[in-house]
């Protein structure tokens, strides 16, 4: 994806294989600030404090975090401890757990002397696969968008929630990948960007769409319903943090309400996610752990002061009790289709099995 006109990835591995650079997303959209991650603690902090966020990018960062940890000590105990530290950072996005399981499956049987190099190579492979899979999601989603556009004969109005774009992945994004593919292919597209309280990841979406030149409009989360009722939304597309074996989808809190709005208004509701987001061991959405985050995310808000300086202000008089579930589960029956790197399928056990027979039968 283009940033300031230059193709850029969200994660840069240092050639000497001891560190990575990431974008501190807590400072966006007000500042684009790269941060070096050179220790296990820095990697764990980056994920926990959401300097990096978005399920696929969390997975890739954790993989590199494990590789970085092994540079100090590649013995069995440290490998297990480092993986446990990273695994404990965030519970809902299964990509984190998938990436660490993949790394451990490769590394545990190896001689400790070879683990460090192997870990780095595997982390790089995870990052590369993410880019390729997201690009493929873009092409499959573009096919769906073209079908809708043929019926409409006008600019396609796509609504999204949270940030499932470039910033949530190594490149291209999941839900936004078809949007970039459509824009790059010359299909007129406009994106309704839902603010996504309390952390306002919608501002990240607006920022990256602007960087790539995609027309878009921000809206308060509560405005989604009226736009749907007024016929201003042709399709909703979101990412996912975990998709259960039956097609239930955990995604950023507020996703479920958008799916309900789509169902009442006959609007297709698509979920885009790579293989690493599918959890075939999880039978349904009820088994997905939902992260409850610090209430201060709700109490405080980042903005610019009158002098244009980024400032955090308290928006609630303390002490107000707040609830802050970070995700919700959309039942499969409300999902029109799931888009993965292998294609488009119904949100059901049979649908997912048709794309991933090897995983579903394992
Ligand atoms: O809490 P976050 O910002 O890490 O949330 C994850 C997400 O970005 C979204 O839920 C997204 O839609 C899925 S990740 C592509």
What would you call the shape? globular
Q: What's the total helix number?
A: 12
**CATH class value of the largest domain:** Alpha Beta
Gyration radius, rounded: 20 Å
Derived from helix and strand composition plus strand pairing, the structural class reads: alpha/beta
What ligands can be seen in this structure? Answer: 5-S-methyl-1-O-phosphono-5-thio-D-ribulose
Overall average residue pLDDT: 96
The CATH topology of the largest domain turns out to be Rossmann fold
**Which strand order spans the largest sheet, edge to edge or round the barrel?**
8-7-6-9-12-17-18
Kindly estimate the percentage of residues that lie in beta strands according to DSSP: 15-25%
Largest sheet: 7 strands, mixed
CATH architecture of the largest domain: 3-Layer(aba) Sandwich
Give the fraction of residues assigned to helices. Answer: 40-55%
Would you give an account of this structure?
It is a single chain. Strand 3 and strand 4 (20-23) form a beta hairpin. It is built from twelve helices and 18 strands. It has two domains: 2-129, translation initiation factor eif-2b, domain 1 (Four Helix Bundle (Hemerythrin (Met), subunit A), Up-down Bundle), CATH 1.20.120; 140-361, 3-Layer(aba) Sandwich (Rossmann fold), CATH 3.40.50. The protein has helices spanning 40-48, 55-72, 76-87, 94-107, 112-152, 176-184, 201-212, 224-229, 255-265, 296-299, 349-355, 357-360; strands at 2-3, 6-7, 11-13, 20-23, 34-37, 156-161, 189-194, 216-219, 235-238, 242-244, 249-252, 269-272, 278-279, 300-304, 310-314, 327-330, 337-340, 343-345. It is of the alpha/beta class and 362 residues long. It binds 5-S-methyl-1-O-phosphono-5-thio-D-ribulose.
């Amino acid at each position: 994806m283009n940033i300031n006109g230059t193709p850029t990835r969200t994660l840069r591995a240092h050639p000497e294989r001891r560190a990575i650079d990431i974008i501190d997303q807590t400072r966006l959209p007000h500042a684009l600030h790269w941060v070096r991650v050179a220790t296990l603690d820095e990697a764990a902090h980056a994920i926990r404090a959401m300097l990096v966020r978005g399920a696929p990018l969390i997975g890739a960062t954790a993989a590199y975090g494990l590789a970085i940890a092994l540079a100090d000590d590649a013995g069995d105990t440290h490998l297990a401890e480092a993986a446990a530290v990273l695994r404990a950072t965030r519970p809902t996005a299964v990509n984190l757990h998938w990436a660490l399981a993949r790394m451990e499956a490769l590394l545990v049987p190896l001689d400790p002397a070879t683990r460090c190099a192997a870990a780095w190579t595997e982390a790089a492979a995870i990052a590369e696969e993410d880019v390729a899979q997201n690009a493929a999601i873009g092409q499959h989603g573009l096919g769906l968008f073209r079908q809708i556009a043929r019926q409409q004969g006008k600019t396609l109005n796509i609504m999204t929630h949270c940030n499932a774009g470039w910033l949530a992945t190594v490149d291209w994004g999941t839900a936004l990948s078809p949007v970039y593919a459509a824009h790059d292919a010359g299909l007129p597209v406009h994106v309704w960007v839902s603010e996504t309280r309390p952390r306002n990841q919608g501002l990240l979406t607006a920022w990256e769409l602007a960087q790539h030149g995609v027309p878009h409009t921000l809206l308060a989360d509560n405005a989604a319903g009226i736009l749907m009722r007024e016929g201003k939304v042709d399709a909703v597309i979101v990412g996912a943090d975990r998709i259960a074996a039956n097609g239930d989808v955990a995604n950023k809190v507020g996703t479920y309400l958008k799916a309900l709005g789509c169902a009442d208004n006959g609007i297709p509701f698509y979920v885009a996610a790579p293989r690493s987001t599918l959890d075939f061991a999880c039978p349904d959405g009820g088994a997905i752990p939902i992260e409850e985050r610090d209430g201060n995310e709700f109490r405080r808000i980042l903005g610019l002061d009158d002098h244009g300086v980024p400032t955090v202000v308290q928006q609630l008089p303390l002490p107000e009790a707040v609830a802050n579930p970070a995700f919700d589960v959309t039942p499969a029956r409300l999902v029109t289709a799931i888009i993965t790197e292998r294609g488009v399928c119904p949100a059901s056990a049979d649908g997912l099995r048709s794309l991933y027979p090897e995983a579903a039968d394992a």
